[in-house]
Design a protein that fits this description.
single chain; mainly alpha; 10 helices
Length: about 190
């Protein structure tokens, strides 16, 4: 079987989800993808290269989720759409989500390209937040709102993904999160508009 980057990354995602970075070895990824270890090295620079590719894919998905301003002229509708997209991403690409948001050990440090994609994703959050504010507000204020928005979404996803989901019903976590987004939007409106 000819090595396929998508198959390799899918196998790595599944292994990561099952056992974190400790479960990722070139041999295990190759076995999961049905390729030789040489096939892995022909596409990636070992485990580091695979983690970088997953990290980039993950933050590119966040970036894409936040790219909503061309879809609606209503700032609050755009923020709600961005929130829904983010929640969808956290479920559809759970391994990527967990990778980019810290379920790593000290053996992995994202390369410069991977870090720049993360910065671009935060810039997309900031654009969505800035769109909620009057034009005379500073970038710092937009970043503050973006951090509040991101914290709310990330906190909700983290609660669903971790042990608290066994303690509290997370059956309606998405609708509860969207209610919290509406509260955040109401707070932004009263604070800045």
């Amino acid at each position: 079987m000819k090595p396929n980057k998508a198959n390799i990354l899918m196998a790595a995602s599944e292994l990561f989800l099952a056992g974190g970075t400790g479960a990722l070895s070139v041999r295990a990824i190759a076995k999961g993808a049905g390729v030789s270890t040489i096939g892995i090295y022909s596409h990636f620079d070992g485990k580091q290269g695979i983690l970088d590719a997953l990290y980039i894919e993950g933050f590119q998905a966040v970036n894409d989720a936040m790219d909503v301003l061309s879809k609606t002229s209503d700032p609050e509708e755009a923020a709600r759409l961005a929130a829904k997209n983010y929640l969808d991403f956290s479920v559809k690409k759970e391994a990527h989500y967990r990778l980019i948001f810290g379920e790593l050990d000290d053996s992995y440090h994202p390369c410069a390209e991977a870090q720049s994609i993360g910065v671009a994703a935060f810039e997309q959050f900031t654009k969505v937040a800035a769109n909620l504010l009057p034009p005379d507000r500073s970038k710092s204020e937009a970043e503050n709102v973006a951090l509040q928005f991101w914290s709310l979404l990330h906190g909700s996803v983290s609660l669903r993904q971790h042990t608290v989901a066994e303690l509290v019903s997370m059956k309606r976590w998405r609708s509860r999160t969207m209610i919290a987004v509406d509260y955040l939007l109401k707070g932004v409106r009263s604070e800045y508009v």
